[in-house]
Amino acid sequence: MKSAVLHFTQTMKVALRALTRNKMRTFLTALGIIIGVGAVIAMVSIGEGAKRGIQERFNSMGTNLLFVSPGNQNVRGVHGQAGSRTTLKEADAAAIEKYCDAVAAISPSVSSRGQVVYGNKNVNTSIQGTGSQYPDIRSWPVETGTYFTDAQVQAAEKICVLGSEVNKNLFEGEDPIGKIVRVKKIPFTVVGVLKSKGESGGFFNRDDMICIPYTTCMRRIAGIEWLNSIDVSAVAADKTSEAQQQIESLLRDRHKIQLGALDDFTVRNMSDIAETASESMQIMTILLGSIASISLLVGGIGIMNIMLVSVTERIREIGIRMAVGARERDILLQFLAEAIVLSFLGGLIGVGFGYGASKFMGKIAIFSQFKAVVSLGSVLLAFLFSALVGVFFGFYPAWKASKLDPIEALRYE
Amino acid sequence: MPNNIIELHDLVKIYKVGETEVQALRGVSYSIAAGEFLAIMGASGSGKSTLMNILGCLDKPTSGEYILDGVKVSTLDKNTLAGIRNRKIGFVFQSFNLLSRTTALENTELPLLYSRRNGRDMTKLALDSLAAVGLRDRAHHKTNQLSGGEQQRVAIARALLNNPSLILADEPTGNLDSKTSFEIMSIFKKLNDEKHMTVVMVTHEPDIAAWAKRRIYLKDGVIIREETS
Questions:
Q1: Residue A72: is its pLDDT beyond 80?
Q2: By the CB < 8 Å criterion, does B78 face chain A?
Q3: Which pLDDT value is given to residue A330?
Q4: Strand partners, A216
Q5: Which of B58, B100, B105, B161 is the best residue to mutate to test the A interface, defined by the most A CB atoms within 10 Å of its own CB?
Q6: CA angle A101, A102, A105 (to 5 degrees)
Q7: Residue B85: band (very low, low, confident or very high) from pLDDT cuts 50, 70, 90
Q8: B125-147 pLDDT, tens digit each
Q9: CB–CB of A324 and B53 under 8 A?
Q10: For A233-369, where are the alpha helices, taking DSSP H only?
């Protein structure tokens, strides 16, 4: 056992010695591996960060959230200008709240888009018609002022709560509470401003919107008699499946849907959505990682190339070693060790390089919310892969070296 | 232990060069006793290099027997032969054949890398070997810092390291001037006289061959003459 360890350290020493003999060549060859491993680490850590970022967003939205939307769509995603179907009614929402005991609160949703004007400033923004429970369900409290009450919603009052971005653009620091803004030319009184939630995915600003009672939106703004969707919160996170089932059976009953027929609505569970998004991120990560692995492959080819050159240059040396007693296996292991040390060192530096690269990319705007996460698993995997690359691509040159004829080798100029 | 370190029985070696067959050795029989100093002479093409390669276990005869230290080595496989080269044979080549960019000490130690022995005494053994050729104080000089004569002496130290049964020298003074050749041959003579090392040398120079106690002449793959001084 001890002699095996000794033999191993000796082999490593000999390999390192051979590699340091031509530092520039060693560095250039290792560069392929460094870039390959670095790219894989950077890509995987960005993907990991994206996944975690999305998970955090979902968590901050509340995991006991459900969405009921009209039409039978298995659309991926959170909230869209839901289908053109008109099957969800106000009464459905009221029924859900009344009869489904796993449901804590509901907020009907009617959305539109339009100009909001204050003084000489105007913005084109999203108009969200909501119920009074909206802040609780969405975990989105007001910063200043208040949200609508049930009574105000019932009365379809012309009041609004501003998103922090709209507030900033229209009022620029002035206190908006009590002021009048024109929403699609209709005057609304501002009663509150929502807390800032920040950008989501860098593509749209969640604070760029204005909330009004859904009743007002239905009658005055959108001019429709149906709901775009219903936000629902379950009594607890582990009750979401139960709530989902209750809502589905209630609505099937109300909409008189026969057994086996398609529903004319869709209930989506927040945690399902979160899981789907998570899975997509995972696939993206694997895809990115695989593409980056191609560069690792190229690095390996570089190793094979250089080792072949190295063997040819050292034919004489191999002959000398064989003359003093090196067996085929000794020569094979010697050159294989060199390839493995080369790729492993490349992997080591590559991990550092990838870590640095992912930190650097975090500073660039587009990637900034994807706080790259370098997990221990990916690092270990990268090491394993770089060692394997060394073994695989170093084997052929080492085998060629071991098969040399000593007499020919000693004669080689 | 048998008195004859080497016994050759009817050695034949045939090479295939393209389409033609070359008969390098056509039946060589000879015995070499322990402690001998033998020179093998002959023109190029006489088969002396082939004989040297077979004696050094770098090559195997096409037919015939080669018994080294009581072991029939002519039928052994490549890996076993490597072990025998490591333990029983010390090579000295015309072009020294040291590893470049390596110190004298590391060059001398090289055979120990491939022997199964424990590596702890490696350095001491190598230093002793270098001392025996008078290069103890140059142990840490690299090959390119050594003169031709010094390099050959390192090669001899390397050959001596595992305490071999025989030293095989192939034109050991071929790349050296006459003064340095004298020094090298003196070392061989000293090793033969004082340590009773068996030395077998291939050369085409009569002056160098004169240092040996016995000489055999090869022509066309057979021994044609033997001389004792």
A1: no
A2: yes
A3: 93
A4: none
A5: B58
A6: 85
A7: very high
A8: 899 999 999 999 999 999 999 99
A9: no
A10: 240-254, 270-313, 315-323, 328-361
Rounded distance between C-alpha atoms, residue A409 and residue A397, angstroms: 15
Q: Is residue B152 part of a domain?
A: yes
Phi-psi group of A185: left, alpha or beta (phi > 0 → left; psi -120 to 50 → alpha; rest → beta): left
Q: How far is A307 from chain B (nearest CA, A)?
A: 18
Of the candidates A14, A325, A406, the beta carbon closest to that of B115 is on A325
- CA–CA dist A357, A38 (Å, integer): 8
- Across chain B, what does the average pLDDT equal? 92
Q: What is the pLDDT of residues A264-319, one digit of tens each?
A: 888 888 777 778 888 888 898 889 888 888 888 899 999 999 999 999 999 999 99
Nearest chain A alpha carbon to B160: A324
Mean per-residue pLDDT, A88-108: 90
Confidence (pLDDT) at B128: 92
Residue boundaries of the structural domains of chain A: 2-57+276-411, 86-263
CB of B129 closer than 8 Å to CB of B193: no
Q: How many residues are there in chain A?
A: 413
pLDDT of A83: 46
pLDDT at B75: 87
Nearest to B91 among A21, A323, A326 (CB): A323
Q: Is this model's pTM higher than 0.80 or not? A: no
Which residue from B93, B98, B111 is facing A325, i.e. has the nearest CB?
B111
What is the distance between the alpha carbons of residues A300 and A30, in angstroms, rounded to a whole number?
Answer: 9
Q: Give percent of chain B with pLDDT exceeding 90.
A: 83
Q: Which of B58, B101, B115 sits opposite A323 (nearest CB)?
A: B58
pLDDT tens string A360-381: 877 775 555 556 677 788 888 8
* CATH (domain of B223): 3.40.50.300
Range(s) of the domain holding residue B182 = 36-61+75-228
Q: Residues of A with CB below 8 A from B53's CB?
A: 407
A36 to A190, A262, B122, B200: CA distances (angstroms): 56, 50, 40, 55
Q: Which residues neighbour B81 within 8 Å (Cβ) at sequence distance 6 or greater?
A: B57, B58, B60, B73
What's B119's DSSP letter? Answer: G
Within-domain flag for B23 = no
* Domain count of the fold of chain B: 1
Domain-embedded: residue B112: yes
Contact A326 B56 (CB under 8 A): no
Domain presence at residue B41: yes
Using a CB-CB cut-off of 8 Å, the residues of chain B touching A325 are 82-83, 85-87, 111, 114-115
Q: Which long-range contacts (CB under 8 A, 24 or more apart) does A23-31 make?
A: A25/A306, A26/A342, A29/A302, A29/A303, A29/A306, A29/A342, A29/A346, A30/A342, A30/A343, A30/A345, A30/A346, A30/A349, A31/A299, A31/A346
Q: Which residue of A324, A329, A404 to mutate against B (max B Cβ within 10 Å)?
A: A324
Alpha-carbon gap, residue B25 to B35, rounded angstroms: 25
Show residues of chain A in contact with B97, CB under 8 Å.
316, 319-320, 323, 410
Are B78 and A327 in contact (CB < 8 Å)?
A: yes
- Residues of chain B in contact with residue A321, where contact means CB-CB under 8 angstroms, are 110, 114
Pairs of CB atoms within 8 A across A/B: 62
d(CA A8, CA B23): 44
Distance CA(B200)–CA(B97), nearest Å, equals 18
Three-class SS of residue B54?
A: helix
ipTM (interface predicted TM): 0.94
